[in-house]
Request: fold
Amino acid sequence: MKKIINLLVVNFLFSVAYADHHGEALGGSFVIPKAEVDATLIQGLANLAEGRTVSDIVVRHVDVGQEYMGVSVVQRSKVEPREIQTGIAHVDLDEIYYIVAGEGTMITGGEFLDSTEIDSSLLGPMLRGEIKNGVLQKVEVGDIAIIPKGMPHGWHEITTDAISYIIFRGDPNEVMQIKNSVDRK
Reply:
C-alpha cells in the first residue's frame, strides 16, 4: 500500500512539471508546475540560511467547492533529540506530509498537558503544548504522514541539517486565505 501511495504522489509531482498553465485554474483544477515547487524548496532553504528554524511557504490554497485545499512547502533545521516532547494540533486542518529531503523522528498522537490555544495568521486556530503518550515515528525521503485535525504532532529529532516536506492541507472550515498565484515569501 505504501508503494502505491508513494507512486501516486510521485506521479502527481512529476505530472505537474508538464503543465503549461502554471497554476491557472483550468476547468476547476489547478496544476503547480515542478519548476515552481523546486523554486519554493530553494526559497525555503534560503529562509533557513537566514537564521529561521522553520520555513512554511503556501504554494497554493484554493477553493474546491465545499472546502479549501492547500499545498505548502516546509523546511525545518536540524533538531537534537528532545526530552520533553512539544508540538501543535490544528483545530481545522487535516495534513498530509510528503518527505522530499532529509530524515527525522516525528511525534504524533497522545494528548497535550496544559495546552495553549493560539491563532496563527497562516494556519488558523491551533493548540500548542507538551505532548504525553505520543508515538515516535522515523521518517525519510518518500515517506508520507497523515495527520488528522486535532492530533498533536511535532518533531522529536531532525537528524539531517534540514528536512523538507510538502504538505497537502484540507481546510473544510476555510480558515486559511486563498492563494491562487506565485508568491514565495
Summary: Residues 53-171 form a domain with the Jelly Rolls fold (CATH 2.60.120.10). Confidence is low (pLDDT under 50) at residues 1-26. The two ends are 36 Å apart (CA to CA).
